[in-house]
Amino acid sequence: MLRLLLFVTAWLSLVLAEHKGKVYKFPEGFRWSTATASYQIEGAWNEDGRGLSIWDKFVRKPGKIIDNSTGDVSSDSYHKFREDIQLISDMGLKEYRFSFSWSRIFADGTPNSLNPAGVLYYHEVLDELISHGITPVVTLFHWDLPQGLQDRGGWLNRDVVDWYLDYAKFCFHEFGHKVQYWITHNEPIIHSTYGHCGLWGEHAPGGLKEHCDWAPYVVGHHMLLAHAYAYRYYHGTRGLGKGKVGITNHVLFPIAESQDDEKVRDLVLDFSLHWFNHPIFKRDYPDKMKAWLAYLSKKEGRSASRLPEFTPHELDLLSGSADFLGLNYYISMIVRTSSKPEVNMFGMDAPAKLWLSKKWMPVGREHSWIRSHPQGLEGLLDIIREEYDNPEVLITENGCMDTPGESLEDVTRIRYLGGHIAAVSKAISRGSKVAGYTLWSLIDNFEWADGYTNLFGVHQVDFDSPNKTRTPKKSSKFYADVVRNNALTWNS
Ligand SMILES: *[C@@H]1O[C@H](CO)[C@@H](O)[C@H](O)[C@H]1NC(C)=O
Ligand SMILES: *[C@@H]1O[C@H](CO)[C@@H](O)[C@H](O)[C@H]1NC(C)=O
Fold first, then answer.
1. For residue 202, what are the CA distances in angstroms to 59, 121, 219, 448?
2. Nearest by Cα to 34 from 78, 82, 98
3. According to the UniProt entry, where is the signal peptide (predicted)?
4. Which of 37, 360, 452, 466 is the 20 to 30 A CA-CA neighbour of 445?
């Protein structure tokens, strides 16, 4: 009788599952989270002693932000953080990734300009999170370098490694008893290229076209070193070192258009995944990327490669300098070999043309930079598992912008999220150590050069109202269900 009952139950759940979709269960303790960044949400750009950052200056240059907007007020989370933390709690989340504004803590970027009000603000945010049972994940640098340091050369000046270390040390000591998870940098690949070249989309501080061939490599080099020194300090200092320190890398998944393009596709993978991960997980920049840039540099008549070299000591510091790999995934791109490098934001110097396949689900406006290709996330997790000896991965961002006409009924976002969450589950079932998934973003906010024209929140913000009223979109409910069940029911 019992066996019959079990059989019927099993059969029934199978039938129901087929109706409603496949169930993707997540491991116990899987960390569901959502994310924001200081300049994008805080506003209060000149309040309570905050110093200027490179973004405050950049948004005031004509023609840089598509709708001429700024983050001066944005979602006003500086004043409304308690409300925002309530939204996180309402979704059932136990984790939140956000960033510190360096110039709110050190107004000019150095310890001499310590701003107690800024320090107090982050204590209040952390206390509010902890009182809601939410674990903070803090990004130390999410692109808003203090302008005072930019005036001294910013990330192009080797001294920035020391400036960053002073800032990281202060944060580790001041907030270390409240923060268990630290992320040194957000997407160094985007900051070094968009921020210091400007051939593609342009970010602060803004770069010269003439510098495109070398500046991103120098900035990236210094960001990696700053990361390594911070990591070593954290784990080498008594009283600290109880938590985890990682880095968040933005990775594009390249797909060869045909068999003939596979070699170039591998090189694009060097410029996308390996550039900022190989030094940490495999001790140095990838060989093919080094050889390619050495070849180009020689052809250009230079005495040294445009890609800087690490000293043996620096390689020691870098090697193994992450307790987890933070992965931001948004898109895949098709790769075709091309003799003249075209406008190719993620391929950099690889001789390739890259584009979004028309076969993938469109998201956002026409010609948006996102189309949905969840298999790319699966593919990346497979590569990371195999190449890097299966490190702990934290998905630190995944999400998409609003699609016009949907407003609060954001069904395209739900399709995007569902597909990608299913992809994470599939990778886990193949052995990937994915510790958690972080949805970008909690609330609508200032989307860099796109201003307020591309909104990524699962809560809408009424930017026209003085109250900056938050309203849940349908996707927040969808995500809350996944979180509550620790499982996704999905047709894909
Ligand atoms: C932004 O400002 C520029 C002038 O600097 C103007 O030409 C353009 O129309 C403005 N765009 C919007 C969307 O307001
Ligand atoms: C302000 O916004 C919050 C949500 O963000 C809302 O609950 C509240 O009713 C709003 N107040 C006014 C006066 O609109």
1. 11, 30, 15, 9
2. 98
3. 1-17
4. 360
State pTM to two decimals: 0.95
- Residue 58 alpha carbon to ligand 1 centre in Å: 15
- Please give the chain's pLDDT, 492 residues, in tens: 556 555 555 555 555 545 579 999 999 999 999 999 999 999 999 999 999 999 999 999 999 999 999 999 999 999 999 999 999 999 999 999 999 999 999 999 999 999 999 999 999 999 999 999 999 999 999 999 999 999 999 999 999 999 999 999 999 999 999 999 999 999 999 999 999 987 767 999 998 888 889 999 999 999 999 999 999 999 999 989 899 999 999 999 999 999 999 999 999 999 999 999 999 999 999 999 999 999 999 999 999 999 999 999 999 999 999 999 999 999 999 999 997 765 556 667 999 999 999 999 999 999 999 999 999 999 999 999 999 999 999 999 999 999 999 999 999 999 999 999 999 999 999 999 999 999 999 999 999 999 999 999 999 999 999 999 999 999 999 999 999 999 999 986
CA distance 80 to 76: 6
Best substitution site from 68, 453, 454 to test ligand 1's pocket, by max atoms within 8 Å of Cβ? 68
The helix, strand and coil proportions of the chain, stated in percent and rounded to the nearest 5, come to 45, 15, 40
Nearest CA to ligand 2 atom 3: 469
CATH topology of domain 2-249+368-489: TIM Barrel (3.20.20)
**Residue carrying structure tokens 């069904």:** 411
Which residues partner with 487 through β-bridges? 25
**Which protein residue has the closest C-alpha to ligand 2 atom 8?**
469
CA 296, distance to chain mean position in Å, is: 30
Q: Which atom of ligand 1 is nearest to the CA of 68?
A: 1
